[in-house]
Amino acid sequence: MNMQEDQRLSDEEKQQLLSVLKTRFESHMHRHERLDWKDVEARLDSHPGKLWSLGEMERTGGEPDAAGEADGLIVYYDFSEESPKGRRKVCYDDEALQARKKNKPEHSAVGMAEEMGVELLDEAHYRQLQTIETVDRKTSSWIRTPADIRGQGGALFGDYRYGAMFIYHNGADSYYSARGFRAVLHV
Q1: DSSP track, 91-116
Q2: What pLDDT, in 10s, does the model give residues 143-168?
Q3: What one-character-per-residue DSSP string does 27-94 give?
Q4: Which of 28, 62, 184, 187 has its CA 20 to 30 A from that of 81?
Q5: Strand, coil or helix: what is 161?
Q6: What percent of the chain has pLDDT over 70?
Q7: Torsion angle, alpha carbons of 72, 45, 128, 94, to 10
């Protein structure tokens, strides 16, 4: 999925990002109890395009951290308490963005994710994230929507209210100041 394989961080940017990621990793071991930072760092070093994507997740306020391993890959999620600030006020996808005639948002969640080289969380990822840490108590986040729902003009989003996680629907062309998207990146 990484559309930005040719993107690279400078040596200084790389070291700064790795320092932030290491500190976050070591401060939140409950997110990835079976992972060792040295293994994670070695994997990141061998995939500079993925490291660039993690930098984009960080730059836009996602506070990415490893959430464990799946299929031999390290899984990174956005762990910011609320939907990342740099990714809010977006409709679901570019089709919805083009269809909107008035008060268009500047971007779409799917389009922005593609530019960052990441994917939107799907419902299973969002549920897993909520079991690791409760997020989106005041905001909501678009999630990858099945084609049959999207084909009817809808899109899904999740949040956490009243002590429970919810998955809702909305028109794909809607956007709100408190709705963004969370990303997943496999390294």
Answers
A1: BSSHHHHHH--SS--S-BHHHHHHHH
A2: 999 999 999 999 999 999 999 999 99
A3: H-GGG-TT--HHHHHHHHHT-HHHHHHHHHHHHTT--EEEEEEETTEEEEEE--SSS-GGG-S-BSSH
A4: 187
A5: strand
A6: 97
A7: -110
CA distance 136 to 41: 28
Non-local (6+) Cβ contacts of 135 within 8 A are: 79, 80, 81, 82, 129, 141, 160, 182
In whole angstroms, give the CA distance from residue 117 to residue 182.
Answer: 13
User: What is the token pair recorded at 73?
Assistant: 């890959």
- Looking at the DSSP bridge assignments, the partners of residue 157 are 142, 168
| 23/171 Cα distance (integer angstroms) | 39
Mean pLDDT of 125-149: 97
State residue 165 phi and psi, 5-degree precision: -90, 140
Please check whether residue 24 is in contact with residue 63, taking contact to mean a CB–CB distance below 8 angstroms.
yes
